[in-house]
Structures
1.
Amino acid sequence: MCGIVGAIAEKNIVPVLIDGLLCLEYRGYDSAGLVISNKGLQRIRTTGRVAELAKKVTEHHTNGFAGIAHTRWATHGEPSERNAHPHISGHESRIAVVHNGIIENHEAMRKRLQAEGYQFESETDTEVIVHLIASNLKKTDSLLKAVSMSIAELQGAYAIAVMEEIHPERIVVARNGAPLLLGLGEDGNYAASDASALLKKTRDMIYLEDGDLAELYKDQYQIYQSKEGNLGQAITRPIHHSDLTSDDIDMGPYDHFMQKEIFEQPSAVANTLEMVFNAQSVSPGLFGSAAESIFEQTNGLLILACGTSYHAGLVARYWLETFAGIPCIVEIASEYRYRDPVADAHTLVVGISQSGETADTLAAMNYAKELGHLHSLSICNVAESALIRQTDLRFLTRAGPEIGVASTKAFTTQLASLLLLTIVLAKMRNRLSVEHEAKMIAALRHLPAALQSTLQIEPEAQEWSQQFSEKRHALFLGRGVHYPIAMEGALKLKEISYVHAEAYASGELKHGPLALVDSEMPVVAIAPNDQLLSKLKSNLQEVRARGGELYVFADADTQIEESDNLHVIRLAEHAGILSPILHTIPLQLLAYHVALVKGTDVDKPRNLAKAVTVE
Ligand code: AGP
């Protein structure tokens, strides 16, 4: 979703802005632009890729010591040059703004500002911000104060960067509900939506909090907390030295980030589970110092998440109820936040998110707190994200940066973390013997190796991909804990190859979807050798009897033989509790190869964004 980069330094910062935008491309966008201060504000925008913007910048010989840049993911108004950021207002002292987020009261603000005489050039909600700041700047001589007064009037989520023509020595930034950090360099200061955009310049970062405003100069910066339009005292925020390097966000020998991230799963899971590799048992402390006392009071779990993270929650529900005997509800965050659920104070709220910035998940977590849930836990891949910072307990998946829009290693590391949570809760509820715990830990230790060998099926998945690329629809079937894996397989296929795919619990087939089955509808089945296999086999017979073509991912010890219209890819022998994690891999590989055959933009599928920071 929209990305922001700002830079103010002793030398030309245009390359920093362009490099930064390139690093933020993965978030998803449909237009880009920048403003550079050089004898006035120079603005360049494009509906194309950042490479197109870079070309225009070169053609115009644009350079300067201060600038703000943006990738826009359209929400209000089509993707067009007119709607691309930065937006500019004012005559004598022009102001430029870039914005990530959504201004909910933009219609009322637009009317008010139009009545004041401001003319709008775009359909965006962002343009009200720039005119509002220009309007407030008539009442004060300080840009910082004008921004502070303006954000007090805005409802919604934002991260903004602002420049003023007559004061090119300064950039003002502010955040509320959308990510923004400062980068402190040797030769200048920077701001960006995420750390990856600044790694070539600095690894010293300050993560701004909601309500923070900051003023950046080339050799200093100052942060303030703004309350109801009043600038408080200057405050300090801790400086974090990022462990990331620019290599972490490099594609290396791979053709796509998604491919790299699929193949990184053994090491991503090994990193996530590092602390249990040498242990004989796992302790609640893994989730935070207060975990033991909170888990003692916990009598149920409410998992809130979106998309792939929601699927991880659905898998966890099977584990938590089976092994820990604890009731677990899993809800789509965007639904939960707008209904009237009955809250139980001692139901632990668990937010799962790769980015930790998903607007719906953050809002749902806050809503659960308002409703009276006492404690919360986050499972997240980004250490300084809003989600991690707002929960009582936390577990950091250590998948490393995930750049491809399609979530892969984030999902399998989430599952590994949720398995640890299951073990801890099962033990605390006296549902797990020492021997059983040792067996589960041994299984987890084996997981990276098991993932590595599962990746070997790639050539077989690739062989199937041609057939799927010729179809318009596909059905994915699973049972029990593998039903959410079927959902994840269908999501992967549709989001990157644009083949319409739906997942069903296979027992549901004859209650409706069987009507869709014919030779044009490939049916993918996840067929582990578990206690539901015989049920699944009957469901597969129902498909065959209707002329359907079956593509089955089976365990080596599953008795399903290839025949006409029945294709089988075999994994290793049944992996017990690890099975849903391992069965995810072939589905990711299948989706990836179908997308390759179809020639879609694998890492940046159309209309989608990596971090969904708006509703
Ligand atoms: C998955 O491939 C998607 N890109 C998407 O469903 C994603 O999982 C969802 O938007 C939630 O994101 P989060 O994990 O960052 O909260």
2.
Amino acid sequence: MNRLAVLGHPAGHSRSPAMQNAALAALGLADEWRYEAIDVPPGEFADRVRAMEGEGFAGANVTVPHKEAALALADEASGTAREIGAANTLSFARGEVSADNTDAHGLLAALPVDPAGKRALVLGAGGAARAVVWALEGSGAEVGIWNRTAERARTLAGELGGEAVEPGADELLPVSGYELIVNTTTVGMDGKGGLAELRIPAEGFGPRHTVLDIVYGEGETPLLAAARAVGATVVDGLEMLVQQGAESLRIWTGREPDLDVMRRAAS
Ligand code: ATR
């Protein structure tokens, strides 16, 4: 048996076990591979990961708050993970831990438009924003980064590229200058907080926008509901979850998972 897991804190809410086990079953691998969720407090992360190969684990996904620690403890890391500064996918073999990051792939695969040459506005400058900014910059988008705490947006732009967008205290974001808007903040996670918290004006927000919210939960976030109402193209966080998970499964098994099976199991 090859074991797989998602490591997070908390981990119980994760949809990855249902999604990955469905994909493994559809590939005829359910007897050989099994995916579970493991809650790991931050202080125990490195020891937990080091023990996993001995317990039969072939790999793990890593989620909040462990993505930076996952990169730090790895014996080798892909260029993508190193440049983003975080890992969401670990593989275990011959006593070594290899780190990768499939979030950037997940974002680009989830987008219904090619970001090359487009103007993209990234909301947020935390850990989740890093893979998004890296992916969009790398695919030739012109990236603006807005964050509630402007200093973090400037730091992120300095490290990964893009330009900090800093409206004045009473001003809203110049959304009409962008085609793509990606929310990486936690605003909307609990179903609360929408356009006002994200400084998005009602004016100029409309059908020419593609809006992706990387948050997923019960129902649509207020941002996506507002975007849908004005005729924008909307993409929810589940699609990015599916695409990053599919890429992790390719890394571990070398097989091509059925994305529709994963979508159904994750929603
Ligand atoms: P993650 O690693 O998941 O991105 P994080 O580093 O805690 O988590 O970042 C959370 C992001 O959500 C940040 O960009 C944060 O803005 P600040 O840097 O100003 O804290 C943003 N965020 C959280 N609550 C917010 C709110 N009520 N309004 C606007 N932005 C918010």
